[in-house]
Amino acid sequence: MPAEPMLFPPRPLRDVQARHLRQAGGCGGGAAIVTVDFEPCTGPTRFELTLPDDVRFRFGPAGGDEDYREVFSLLEALDEGLREVLAEDGRITVHCRAVLRSMVVHPVDSHPRAFREAGRLAARKALEQVFGTS
Length: 134
Fold this sequence. Notes:
By secondary structure, this protein is an alpha/beta fold. It is built from two helices and six strands, in the order ββββαββα. A hairpin with a 7-residue loop joins β2 and β3 (30-40). The model has no long low-confidence stretch (mean pLDDT 87).
């Protein structure tokens, strides 16, 4: 009889860093570096990606609405990558909040695909911290 899935995470997991860095050989490169905390949550929420209350964005001299739209598309991709990996792991019932502590965006090489992959990597690292390597 299979074991009952455990709640994930069983305890707070701090400073899970994921780095997706691919050198562009023409096109197709990617740069995304994130640090995420995974915290157990209470209530009906199964999963949410949140930002700290004191979040600050720093942009170059151009700054403005376009920069914010780009950052939020990267956050959406990060969220998708985290959810993909956590949803496919049959050992767990996801019940957590992922708090984005930092993200590094390259002005040319950062794009949603890179942040989706960084989300996948962060989720895999968190699962590895709980279950060990598989």
